[in-house]
Amino acid sequence: MLLCIYLRILRLGVVHLAWEMMPILRRTILSLACLLLHWSSEASQILRGLLSLVKSMPQRSMKKSER
Fold first, then answer.
1. Alpha carbons 27 and 48: distance in angstroms, whole number
2. Alpha helices, H only, the chain
3. Between 54 and 19, where is the model more confident?
4. Residue 46 sits in which domain range?
5. CA–CA separation, 12 vs 43, rounded Å?
6. In terms of domain of life, where is this protein from (predicted)?
7. pTM for the whole thing?
């Protein structure tokens, strides 16, 4: 009986704490998502640059061998 009441109070406390932490969690999740998007866009730009470098490399070596 006492244990049941204690667990109920504990559950209410956890729910209340989660409700209080919700804005902080939401902000943290949003900022993490923004960071991931930023990093992925930077990574894709770097990959595009590398791809263009790789594509232009054989042409450069061909021009040198033609001379």
1. 31
2. 2-66
3. 54
4. 1-67
5. 44
6. Bacteria
7. 0.43
